[in-house]
Amino acid sequence: RMITIRLATADDFMALYRLGEAMRQEAITHFPKLDAKRASEFLDMAIEQPDTARVVVAEDDEGLIGMMTSMMGGYAFSYEKKAVSDLLFVLPEKRGAIAAKKLVQDFIQWAKDNDAPAAFIGVSTGTDNERTGKFFEKMGFHHMGLSYKMELNHV
Fold this sequence. Notes:
Blueprint (H helix, E strand, L loop, with lengths): L3 E4 L5 H14 L9 H13 L4 E8 L2 E13 L2 E13 L8 H15 L5 E2 L8 H10 L17
Parallel strand pairs: 4-5
Antiparallel strand pairs: 1-2, 2-3, 3-4
C-alpha cells in the first residue's frame, strides 16, 4: 500500500482526534484527556504558522494511519532554535511499514528547512520504549539525558 505524508488540514480534525484517542488508550503512562478545543487551536496554529508548529499525517488508501506534531522553539538561555516533536503515533496494525520513517524524515527536513541546529524526539507514552528508541537511533538520533515525571494528584 502506498503511504503518503502531508500537512494536516482542518478537514482532518476528526480523524486526528480519533488517532489521538487511540494513542491515549495505548499509553502505559498517564496521558492527559484530549481536549477538542485545544487540539483544534493547535491544528489552526500549525496551518497558519507552518514555521512554528506542524501537524503532519500519514495516509494510506484506507485513511489516516499516523500523525506527528512538532514545534519550533528556543531555549530559556539562548536564541538558538530547536525543533521538538512531542507526538509521533502510527496505528498499531500499521506499524512496521514505512509510515513512522516517513513522518520522522519529514520532521528532520522541516527542522533543516527552518535552520534549527538540533531536533529532539522522544517517547512519553511508555509504549514500546526500547523498540522506539532503536528506531530513533536508526533514524540518526542519539540517546541523551533522561526524563522523569511525577503525578501531582490535586485534591
